[in-house]
């Protein structure tokens, strides 16, 4: 299984990034291949000028096409998700998330921003034809404490439990996802099938 994780924060130190990293590590421990992209790693010119032919953008598109699922993690600004993330998602083809499971994650200053996932991020994922967009996770800033030095960030117990529950659901959804039949395999199955009336 392949999961593409996408971080929407322009900052190298972000709470949404902490949750994205935790999620990726949890999936890797269960044998899932995880490839991570951060919006801040894309050339600003590629995003601002919608350069679909940029090698970095094409690499992102190709991996999304191959992926079984996506995790999209973003900070919430002005009651919506990060604009740079929207710009990156706009560079995906129209049906890029078809047959894929998506787990949205968002962090914000207070629970007043909780509905940004449902009313801002999920409609964009739906427009990209995501097969299944899970409930998602919202964490307010008080639930993620940065670690000092090499100390890992700490999550509030309630957030940790919700994150693990969402990841279990995401992993199960990936496992039950229908697999496309390889070209030629369907023909072989039809030829070798026993038909009766």
UniProtKB/TrEMBL annotation:
Signal peptide: none annotated. Its EC number is 1.5.1.38. InterPro entries: Flavoprotein-like_sf (IPR029039), FMN_Rdtase-like_dom (IPR005025), NAD(P)H-dep_FMN_reductase (IPR051814), NADPH-dep_FMN_reduc_SsuE (IPR020048). GO terms for molecular function: FMN reductase (NADPH) activity; oxidoreductase activity, acting on NAD(P)H, quinone or similar compound as acceptor. Residues 1-141 form the NADPH-dependent FMN reductase-like domain. Keywords: Flavoprotein, FMN, Oxidoreductase. GO terms for biological process: alkanesulfonate catabolic process. Pfam families: FMN_red. NCBIfam families: FMN_reduc_SsuE (TIGR03567), PRK10569.1 (NF007859). Belongs to the SsuE family. This is FMN reductase (NADPH).
